Amino acid sequence: MSTEKSALWFRRFVPGAEEAPVRLVCLPHAGGSAAYFVPLAHALGARADVLAAQYPGRQDRRREPCIDEMGALADAAFDALRPYLDRPVLLFGHSMGATLGFELVRRIEAAPGPGAVRLFASGRRAPARAGGPLVHLLDDDRLLAELAGLDGTDARVLGDEELMRSALPAIRADYKAAETYRLTDDVRLDCPITALAGASDPKVTLDEVRAWEQHTTAGFELRVFEGGHFFLAGHREAIVRLVTERLHGQARI
Q1: How many CB atoms sit inside 10 A of residue 245's CB?
Q2: Which of 92, 154, 184, 205 is the most exposed place for a label (fewest CB within 10 A)?
Q3: How many CA atoms lie within 13 A of 99 on its CB side?
Q4: CA Rg, the chain, in Å?
Q5: Boundaries of each Thioesterase domain copy (predicted)?
Q6: Which of 6, 95, 122, 166 is catalytic?
Q7: What is the pLDDT of residue 156?
Q8: Residue by residue, what is the 3-state secondary structure of the chain?
Q9: Domain-by-domain residue ranges, the chain?
Q10: How far, in Å, are 27, 42, 84, 85, 86 from residue 112 at the CA level?
């Protein structure tokens, strides 16, 4: 894949960070965009080369077909990520992004190169615990109500009905990819997993998040934060501190 195409998939918000010794690949939630990780990228500065995924079918990629199957999404994202695998990478995925991160680590570990250092799986049940309601089958009004109830979308955006309805195809495709995903094998990654959870997340239980432990042959840790599904926004400093420690190996588990 060309460098131009890779840059379309993965956005860098801190100029000069590409010289950092490690990369942090961030993968947004269903309906999310690369911009969700701008605060994290700026907080980390040049300590890591933060790349945030921009999935097709939204914003400046809105004319591209959406991808509604997790395997196909992982294949396309991995193809775009290849030029960035010249140094160790950590992956941080929130909600649907955590499942995508898991599938990307599988592909990275099967490819030559330094490999994956760690997976941060945030706000998502473990792959072996796939299931739950099929939100992607809801009609438009109920799907919009579901999004409003999660507090993950800016109120100004939610109040713009035309904008929200134009985004529905991408949102529905993302939900379908996440909700129809099934892990058919007992897969364990060779890198450690840090699972993050909101204590009052209505979408996933702590037991479902804790089950990520069965998907690694290396270390596992679970961090629980006050808040719901989008708890990250309320704990930015703590999460930046955690990521920084793991980036530089200052804490061992």
Answers
A1: 12
A2: 184
A3: 28
A4: 17
A5: 23-244
A6: 95
A7: 45
A8: CCHHHHHHHEEECCCCHHHCCCEEEEECCCCCCHHHHHHHHHHHHHHCEEEEECCCCCHHHCCCCCCCCHHHHHHHHHHHHHHHCCCCEEEEEECHHHHHHHHHHHHHHCCCCCCEEEEEEECCCCHHHCCCCCHHHCCHHHHHHHHHHHCCCCHHHHCCHHHHHHHHHHHHHHHHHHHCCCCCCCCCECCCEEEEEECCCCCCCHHHHHHHHHHECCCEEEEEECCCCCHHHHHHHHHHHHHHHHHCCCCCC
A9: 3-247
A10: 22, 30, 12, 9, 10
The C-alpha atoms of residue 22 and residue 236 are separated, in whole angstroms, by 20
Strands 49-53 and 10-12: antiparallel
Architecture of domain 3-247: 3-Layer(aba) Sandwich (3.40)
To the nearest 10 degrees (0 to 180), the angle between helices 70-81 and 96-109 is 60
Tell me if residue 95 is catalytic.
yes
Q: Which two tokens stand for residue 79?
A: 């193809």
- Per-residue pLDDT at 100: 98
Cα 226 from Cα 235, distance rounded (Å): 8
Q: Tokens 């250092």 label which residue? A: 117
Q: Which of 7, 14, 58, 10 is nearest to 40 (CA)?
A: 14
Q: Are 29 and 150 in contact (CB under 8 A)?
A: no
As given in the structure block, the two tokens for residue 115 are 């490999």
User: For the chain (length 253 residues), average pLDDT per consecutive 10?
Assistant: 80 91 95 93 93 95 95 97 93 97 96 90 92 73 74 48 74 92 89 96 93 96 94 92 83 38
